[in-house]
Design brief:
The structure holds two protein chains of two kinds. Chain A has helices at 29-34, 56-73, 84-93, 95-98; strands at 6-10, 16-24, 43-47, 51-54, 76-80, 100-101. By secondary structure, chain A is of the alpha/beta class. Chain B folds into two domains: 7-133, Rossmann fold (3-Layer(aba) Sandwich), CATH 3.40.50; 140-318, 2-Layer Sandwich (Heat Shock Protein 90), CATH 3.30.565.10. By secondary structure, chain B is α/β, with parallel strands linked by helices. Chain B has an eleven-stranded mixed sheet with strand order 2-1-3-4-5-11-9-10-8-7-6, sandwiched between helices. The chains are: A alpha/beta, B alpha/beta. The A-B interface holds A 3, 25-27, 29, 53-57, 59-60, 63-64, 67, 83-85, 88-89, 91-94, 97-98 and B 162, 181, 184-185, 187-188, 191-192, 195, 213-214, 263-268, 272-273, 275-276, 279-280, 307-309. Chain A: This is STAS domain-containing protein.
């Protein structure tokens, strides 16, 4: 898997859909901080199917990004295809307080 | 009063003592006490007999829930007493707030089913008692089978992180989901330990971080960042040492306690990384020589049954 982080938007009806690929760490800051401005729907889905390792800095960036989406855009957030390790990480760090785990 | 190697073991009642009895089977010089209404009398008699225990092992059935003031009471009789709380994996403590207030720096979560299945002699409590009584440091060789190869990396550049993580992943050979989970957890643990050493540990005299997270950097000659790991087929043990010694024992406990209680804080002052390391390891140790060295390590079993959402064991020690 290519470890470098990228956000790939997918056109969908009635929701914003973003695939997050690669490791999510300090290198993801610029892209994640710019993402809330791209939200223009009431439902935002994040696909972690191609995401690699997420470290504590990555978690901090995701928390900030999700909080801004909820506060500024009043949108609902869903996360998809989160592997078992990242699911544990999301549970213990409060990500699931901001985003619901959903199936495709 | 002469301090000796006597251990005080405190239980909530006879049933609690019976449930914990197998943990103390190989431990000599244990005074077992039921913390009933005669506790103060019993402790007074022990002190009057000129016995000054080096260590108290307290059942979690007693502290902090049932008798939150217990540590304070014990230290009234034995000021230099080291405290270790022992809890079954089926019922870990709910919070570390009382631990933080009382500066209780040792907690073992005992997985009795696993212990019964493996019959291992070197259980966490035996290792802990040996280390605390004899003032030895925890090291990763204590967690893996004798003769297991220990891989060691002296860091020169922050970019070495990925190759180290790959070496760790490659050492965990196996196709099952258990092996895959262990590789993922091991990779994340190594990432957090290395990031903490590169960016969290280096602080100026006024306590400010010197390097920004994620920036590429060369490791300074005196930093002495060394990462080690070993995998014996069942247990993955890891540790990292840095030459900063900037992590205070009380700060560690505060990070663990506050992150357990308050999820979702966006700011990461280093506490979340340490919290993740603690929760992904089955057992975690930190040893700090203030201003000189910090060692962070622990172990994780392939078949670990301790969920990351619950409180895990730890040992926080200082030297120097």
């Amino acid at each position: 898997m290519d470890a470098s982080f990228k956000i790939v938007p997918h056109p969908k009806v009635l929701c914003n859909y973003f695939s997050l690929a690669g490791n999510i760490d300090a290198q993801a800051e610029t892209q994640l901080m710019a993402l809330p401005a791209k939200v223009n729907q009431q439902l935002v889905k994040f696909d972690f199917g191609n995401a690699g390792r997420i470290n504590s800095m990555g978690i901090a960036l995701l928390l900030r990004c999700f909080k801004r989406i909820k506060e500024e855009k009043r949108a609902e957030i869903q996360v998809l295809q989160v592997n078992a390790t990242n699911t544990m990480l999301f549970k213990m760090t409060g990500i699931f307080l901001l985003a619901a785990a959903a199936k495709d | 009063m002469q301090q000796n190697k006597t251990i005080l073991a405190l239980f909530a009642d006879n049933a609690d003592a019976e449930a914990m009895s197998s943990c103390f089977f190989h431990v000599p010089e244990v005074i077992s006490v039921i913390a009933d209404r005669f506790l103060k009398v019993t402790l007074g008699e022990i002190a009057s007999a000129r016995i000054d225990p080096g260590l108290a092992v307290i059942s979690s059935a007693l502290y902090p829930g049932k008798r939150p003031q217990l540590v304070e009471e014990l230290r009234g009789y034995f000021p230099g007493l080291e405290i270790l709380v022992l809890a079954p994996a089926s019922m870990p403590p709910h919070s570390l707030e009382r631990f933080m207030l009382d500066q209780v720096r040792h907690l073992i979560i005992e997985n009795r089913q696993e212990k019964a299945a493996t019959g291992d002699g070197d259980q966490p409590l035996s290792v802990a008692i040996g280390n605390l009584i004899l003032k030895r440091q925890w090291h990763l060789g204590q967690y893996v089978k004798g003769g297991t190869e220990i891989q060691e990396f002296q860091l020169s550049f922050s970019e070495e992180k990925e190759q180290i993580i790959k070496a760790l992943e490659d050492s965990i050979v196996g196709d099952s989901m258990e092996y895959e989970m262990l590789r993922q957890k091991g990779a994340l643990l190594a990432d957090e330990m290395l990031e903490n050493a590169f960016y969290g540990a280096p602080k100026s005299d006024d306590g400010m971080k010197i390097f920004r997270k994620g920036e590429r950097r060369q490791i300074l000659p005196d930093e002495g960042i060394v990462f080690r790991f070993a995998f014996d087929g069942e247990t993955l043990a890891m540790e990292i040492k840095d030459g900063w010694g900037s992590l205070g024992a009380d700060m560690v406990l505060e990070y663990l306690a506050k992150n357990s209680a308050d999820m979702g804080a966006a700011d990461d002052a280093g506490g979340r990384g340490l919290f993740i390391i603690w929760r992904f390891l089955d057992h975690f140790h930190v040893c700090v020589n203030p201003g000189k060295e910090t060692l962070i390590g622990g172990h994780l079993k392939k078949s670990s049954q301790i969920p990351p959402e619950t409180i895990h064991g730890f040992h926080i020690t200082t030297t120097g």
